[in-house]
């Protein structure tokens, strides 16, 4: 009985055209990361499960791909990179010059229901800046966040900034003891109708007045110059006032970075990870694909100490590649990949001399930087030319016995059908000129 194996639910096979588009996106983002002097790291695909349970958040912990290995160790595939990077920092970089500026491009795993832009295996590109508690670090990271999207050609998006300190202060104003629980609930608000959100708040334990205040808070969003004065009216405590002052400073620096056009303030943003401690943010790009946030991040000043390190302030973000690429494709911003060689070399016949000459020409063209393929299946001339036509190859080099005896080969222009004899030793230069390299 034959067994037909399918790919696992929530995963994908990425074909050459899709991989070429992904590589284009990654290269655009990588260039910006490195221009900001961030340096690439990569951590193991799996870690001890306890690492993610410490501060990842209830929803993420429930979605872990956790398992016991053959040595009885309880491990999990990484659901995010921040925890792993924090562990890496604690393990060997606490005394490194500050700030430490790292970036990553890697796959993550969460057991959740697949939907538009959401898979069980997905890729993120992100940065972590460790060792600065200054607002300048927040501005640096958020400006990089904006510029990373701009580098892909995306311009119709906003980066919405919230603040966990203000949400914590708001929870205190309501008399809520489980502030983390309230944060988790607020983070899920966009996945519920307004009515369902109100019901969930009541089930959480808020009275009608508390529900009304939360519903009003999550609607306080818009341009910084509109929202921050309203926040000053709402929050009167000293800690909240200091945080609002910091937000004013952040906005001013983002203006200096030239990215204020994309910035909004949204006091209802909580983000799903428990480790955030201050500024949080997420990017939203309007679309008809059912895709929400395309990335986010924030400040996490307590995570390093939770993992056993010296208290170290930190901030960072992750861009959701599986969410970004469909939007870029929908907007027509990713160039169509060129999945063909520039030159195709065909030996006309099976003689060893012809095959050797074809291999020499192929190798010389590749060494000169020309994308070159050669006939590998023994096709006869007509079928080889048909194959080249289907690939869309601009030029074919025909290596025939008679021509080779005279030290020549034939270069065929596949669009016009025009053919010319070229000395074998000159064929590389001739093709480079024809291709405009």
UniProtKB/TrEMBL annotation:
<dbReference type="Pfam" id="PF13393">
    <property type="entry name" value="tRNA-synt_His"/>
</dbReference>
<keyword id="KW-0436">Ligase</keyword>
<dbReference type="GO" id="GO:0004821">
    <property type="term" value="F:histidine-tRNA ligase activity"/>
</dbReference>
<keyword id="KW-0030">Aminoacyl-tRNA synthetase</keyword>
<dbReference type="GO" id="GO:0000105">
    <property type="term" value="P:L-histidine biosynthetic process"/>
</dbReference>
<dbReference type="InterPro" id="IPR004517">
    <property type="entry name" value="HisZ"/>
</dbReference>
<keyword id="KW-0648">Protein biosynthesis</keyword>
<feature type="domain" description="Aminoacyl-transfer RNA synthetases class-II family profile">
    <location>
        <begin position="1"/>
        <end position="341"/>
    </location>
</feature>
<dbReference type="InterPro" id="IPR015807">
    <property type="entry name" value="His-tRNA-ligase"/>
</dbReference>
<dbReference type="InterPro" id="IPR004516">
    <property type="entry name" value="HisRS/HisZ"/>
</dbReference>
<feature type="binding site">
    <location>
        <begin position="275"/>
        <end position="276"/>
    </location>
    <ligand>
        <name>L-histidine</name>
    </ligand>
</feature>
<dbReference type="GO" id="GO:0005737">
    <property type="term" value="C:cytoplasm"/>
</dbReference>
<dbReference type="InterPro" id="IPR045864">
    <property type="entry name" value="aa-tRNA-synth_II/BPL/LPL"/>
</dbReference>
<dbReference type="InterPro" id="IPR004154">
    <property type="entry name" value="Anticodon-bd"/>
</dbReference>
<dbReference type="Pfam" id="PF03129">
    <property type="entry name" value="HGTP_anticodon"/>
</dbReference>
<dbReference type="InterPro" id="IPR033656">
    <property type="entry name" value="HisRS_anticodon"/>
</dbReference>
<dbReference type="InterPro" id="IPR036621">
    <property type="entry name" value="Anticodon-bd_dom_sf"/>
</dbReference>
<feature type="binding site">
    <location>
        <position position="271"/>
    </location>
    <ligand>
        <name>L-histidine</name>
    </ligand>
</feature>
<comment type="similarity">
    <text>Belongs to the class-II aminoacyl-tRNA synthetase family.</text>
</comment>
<keyword id="KW-0547">Nucleotide-binding</keyword>
<feature type="binding site">
    <location>
        <begin position="80"/>
        <end position="82"/>
    </location>
    <ligand>
        <name>L-histidine</name>
    </ligand>
</feature>
<dbReference type="InterPro" id="IPR006195">
    <property type="entry name" value="aa-tRNA-synth_II"/>
</dbReference>
<dbReference type="GO" id="GO:0005524">
    <property type="term" value="F:ATP binding"/>
</dbReference>
<dbReference type="GO" id="GO:0006427">
    <property type="term" value="P:histidyl-tRNA aminoacylation"/>
</dbReference>
<protein>
    <recommendedName>
        <fullName>Histidine--tRNA ligase</fullName>
        <ecNumber>6.1.1.21</ecNumber>
    </recommendedName>
</protein>
<keyword id="KW-0963">Cytoplasm</keyword>
<feature type="binding site">
    <location>
        <position position="110"/>
    </location>
    <ligand>
        <name>L-histidine</name>
    </ligand>
</feature>
<dbReference type="InterPro" id="IPR041715">
    <property type="entry name" value="HisRS-like_core"/>
</dbReference>
<keyword id="KW-0067">ATP-binding</keyword>
<feature type="binding site">
    <location>
        <position position="124"/>
    </location>
    <ligand>
        <name>L-histidine</name>
    </ligand>
</feature>
<feature type="binding site">
    <location>
        <position position="128"/>
    </location>
    <ligand>
        <name>L-histidine</name>
    </ligand>
</feature>
């Amino acid at each position: 009985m034959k067994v037909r194996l399918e790919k696992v639910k929530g995963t994908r096979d990425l074909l050459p055209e899709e991989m070429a588009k992904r590589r284009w996106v990654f290269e655009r983002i990588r260039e910006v990361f490195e221009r900001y002097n961030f340096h690439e790291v990569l951590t193991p695909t799996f870690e001890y499960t306890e690492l993610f349970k410490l501060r990842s958040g209830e929803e993420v912990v429930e979605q872990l791909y956790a398992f016991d290995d053959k040595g009885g160790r309880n491990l999990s595939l990484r659901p995010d990179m921040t925890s792993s990077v924090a562990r890496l920092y604690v393990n060997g970089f606490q005394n490194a010059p500050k700030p430490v500026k790292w970036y990553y491009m890697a796959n993550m795993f969460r057991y959740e229901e697949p939907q538009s832009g959401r898979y069980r295996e997905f890729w993120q590109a992100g940065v972590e800046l460790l060792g600065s508690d200054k607002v300048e670090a927040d501005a640096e990271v958020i400006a990089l966040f904006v510029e990373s999207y701009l580098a892909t050609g995306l311009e119709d998006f906003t980066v919405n900034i919230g603040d966990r300190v203000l949400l914590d202060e708001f929870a205190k104003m309501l008399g809520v003891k489980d502030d983390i629980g309230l944060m988790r609930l607020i983070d899920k608000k966009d996945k519920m109708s307004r009515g369902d959100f109100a019901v969930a708040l009541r089930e959480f334990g808020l009275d009608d007045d508390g529900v009304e205040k939360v519903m009003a808070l999550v609607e306080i969003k818009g341009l910084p110059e509109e929202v921050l004065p309203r926040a000053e009216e709402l929050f009167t405590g000293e800690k909240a006032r200091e945080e609002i002052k910091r937000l004013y400073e952040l906005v001013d620096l983002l203006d200096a970075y030239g990215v204020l056009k994309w910035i909004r303030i949204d006091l209802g943003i909580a983000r799903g990870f428990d480790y955030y401690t201050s500024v949080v943010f997420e990017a939203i790009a309007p679309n008809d694909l059912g895709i929400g946030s395309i990335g986010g991040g924030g400040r996490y000043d307590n995570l390093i100490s939770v993992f056993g390190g010296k208290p170290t302030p930190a901030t960072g973000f992750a861009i959701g590649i599986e969410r970004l690429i469909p939007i870029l494709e929908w907007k027509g911003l990713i160039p169509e990949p060129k999945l063909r060689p520039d030159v195709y070399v065909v030996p006309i016949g099976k003689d060893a001399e012809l095959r050797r000459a074809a291999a020499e020409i192929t190798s010389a063209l590749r060494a000169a930087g020309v994308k070159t393929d050669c006939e590998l299946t023994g096709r006869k001339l007509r079928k080889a030319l048909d194959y080249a036509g289907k690939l869309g190859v601009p030029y074919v080099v025909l290596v025939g016995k008679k021509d080779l005896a005279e030290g020549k080969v034939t270069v065929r222009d596949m669009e016009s059908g025009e053919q010319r004899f070229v000395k074998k030793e000159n064929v590389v230069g001739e093709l480079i000129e024809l291709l405009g390299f």
